[in-house]
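Our platform keeps sequence and structure together, in a single record for each protein. This encoding replaces a full spatial description with a residue-level series of whole-number codes. We quote a single record here, exactly as it is kept in our systems:
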Amino acid sequence: MTSSDSSVAVSGAEHAAASCVSDIVAYLFGQYPSAARQAGRHELDGCLPLSCARSAVGHGVLAATAARHLGALPDDADPELRADLDAAMRMAEGERFRATELAQPHLTPLEVLAETDLSPFLRPYAPLTERLDALDTHLSRLPSFLAEAADTVPARLPAGERLLAVEQAQAQAITIGNVVRQLNQAEGTDGRARRAVAAEGRIAAGEAASVACADFARVAAATRPSPGLLGPDRLAEFLRIKEGIDRRPGDLLEEAIEEVASLLSALDSAARDMGAGGRRAACELMADHVSDTPVTEHLASVIQRLRDFWEHLDVVSMDTVVPLEIRPAVGPGTATAVEFSLSPPLEPIRQPHILYLPELPAANEDARFQARRRYLNDPMINVIAVHEVYVGHYLHAEAAARGPSVVRACFPSITGYAEGWAHYAEELAVEYGLADGQPLVRIAQLKSALESAVRLVSYLSMHLMRSPFAEAAALAARSCDWSAERAAREVLVVAADPTPAMYTLAKLRIREWRAAVSAASRPSLKAFHDRLMRCGNAPLATVWRYYLDGEHDGTVAGAGGPTTNAEVR
């Protein structure tokens, strides 16, 4: 074959690989229209998924096709394309795994409820009249969609999934009405009867959708709880597919147990250093440090100081284009929830990223104050600002947006890497001096790390069937000083949803990669961090390969030579 023929073959392989990625993205957007709307694909406004069973054969074909194209890529293929294809392949393989190995041919209750999310209609991606028309269509279709989906709910659900489904369905029953009222008020009244009639019809449609959500909550509550545990073999396969982790889950559990022990020791040491009577007393001291200003204002001031802190350090690039807005989250379930809402990456005119912070109504002043003392005290606000903004989710989202990828920008839940990066950032901030002269910030960071590590231990020990539920909950309560009720809930939820466990699992891998590339100097550490963030949202194995590709093609400058990593590949 001549050099010209070879280049044509490579070009053809890359073109076929790119087409495969596009096919998988289109398929997933069709399966989960809520994800498309969140990404800015508004041609799917008002669209809802079919209630028929997933095609295990179809998923298998998509995954096999992607694997074939991945194998055909030359070693010097575009790293962006290789990362896209690998991420898409794992997503397709994950769909197959769920439909076959986990016997989940239909949408789960939580996936069903994701389609009731009306928040995309609040963003000004189009004139209000267009968004209201799309909202009206969506609302009109929700009752029948939820009724059909209710018929596919199995008689038994994993206990944590059942709990979340009931809570989220009940919350959505309230939130739908709130969104409808908000958009009706935004439309305004100018005396025209047509608008008044449309608003009344929208309110009626919203009420019907809310009733349907409440009915769905009752269907979920009527199911019987089951353990829903994977067992050692399926857990290993799940981690291999989702994150590319080949290491045995038992070894991961031992690593997580060691991390918990290390964090407990560090908390004890930090408590002694500040003269507190143990780690519990040190954690309680945080609650006495609460700013007089509203939490949104206080966080804004912390964020500005953080930006100055990181810019001075120069261990990660601080480039941002799309702004961040901080807004109070008022509504069901927002007493302690902090949520980073990604700017839809596919919208032609990018809207701000939004960080929602709990801010209970003034009528609940005592409840608001107690929640702030417990969850949003000043030391913890520092850790939250790192995790959510600098250099966590906000900076990560901005770095990913500078790349050409759709699949790694539009599916934030594809992996635990995004949360792992933000969790690693908390540790990095303290390593480089954020807590100097602020011992309670160190306590807050260690408390955050401990709770995340305990969730990982709970997740792995439960699915490996090493610990019964009662034992896992008791261990969580002792380690984190949680109440028995909170510990039980945490263990139930993490057993059903691995996301909270991924914070620590991914953080440990990032630590490992950093050691492997000898990123000790600040220039090399900055190159290391920038390359990881640019990869966006991708499975851990994909991120590591993306970094190595950057080393090989010279994209990563200043870092030492990497060693191989046999655990994530």
